[in-house]
Amino acid sequence: MIRVAALSMRLASGGRVVDVLTDVSLAVPAGQFLAIAGPSGSGKSTLLGLLAGLDQPTAGRVEVAGVDITALDEDDLARFRRDHVGYVFQSYHLIPTLTASENVAVPLELAGRRDAAERAQALLAEVGLAERAHHYPVQLSGGEQQRVAVARAIALAPPLLLADEPTGNLDSATGKQIIDLLVGVNRRRGCTLVLVTHDPALAAHADRVVTLRDGRVVSDE
């Protein structure tokens, strides 16, 4: 599903160049739940952004579903992300002026789905929020907002689901519910799940854990 070859990322910061990632290579088979772990500043979120095609690496290549996404232009990348990638952010990124159902319907409507409203309702039921469909984000708890974000991310049934510290703004009990939800999506739908976390207890739920430190892979088990 994913092949990363000799990936490096260098960024200018404070007048100097920082190596955020250095020579990272890994392969992730379809359907695997991979956790990317490591301390703050180790390059985890940068790697996830590169897997999603949100950034361009300084060197190396990223192949997803047989496509070298590092060779695509912005328009092709946008289409590829729409069709292949679901992304769950730490801070939810819901549209505050839209209800839960309307937030989930956005990618469906952009894809031209005529059944967007009905599909959004079914997705909210899948994540346990059928009764909260007409509530706005401000009326939802953090855990509920993240459930809406997960429903939105899987709306177009992407083969790859990426989650960047999805429990970072939640208490431990609610965070466990979100992890269980993501694992359930991975198992039921057969999608590949790549999750970034600094919490070893959350990483332990994964099939495999790749640990980064100072932008390099230090363990893969």
Features:
10 strands; 34% helix; 7 helices; globular; 6-stranded mixed sheet; 4-stranded antiparallel sheet; 221 residues; alpha/beta; Rossmann fold
List the helices and strands and how they pair.
Layout: E1 2-13, E2 16-28, E3 33-37, H1 44-51, E4 59-64, E5 67-68, H2 74-84, E6 85-88, H3 100-110, H4 116-126, H5 142-153, E7 160-164, H6 172-189, E8 192-196, H7 200-203, E9 208-213, E10 216-220
Parallel strand pairs: 3-8, 3-9, 6-7, 7-8
Antiparallel strand pairs: 1-2, 1-4, 4-5, 9-10
Helix pairs in contact: 3-4, 3-5, 4-5, 5-6
Structure description:
- The mean pLDDT is 94.
- With 221 residues, this protein is an alpha/beta fold.
- The protein contains 7 helices and 10 strands.
- The longest helix is centred in the C-terminal third of the chain and has 18 residues.
- It has a single domain, classed as P-loop containing nucleotide triphosphate hydrolases (Rossmann fold, 3-Layer(aba) Sandwich).
- The protein is globular and about 50 Å long.
- The relative contact order is 0.21.
- Helices cover 34% and strands 29% of the residues.
- A hairpin with a 2-residue loop joins β9 and β10.
- α3 packs across α4 and α3 packs parallel to α5.
- The strands form 2 sheets. It has a 6-stranded mixed sheet with strand order 6-7-8-3-9-10, with helices on both faces.
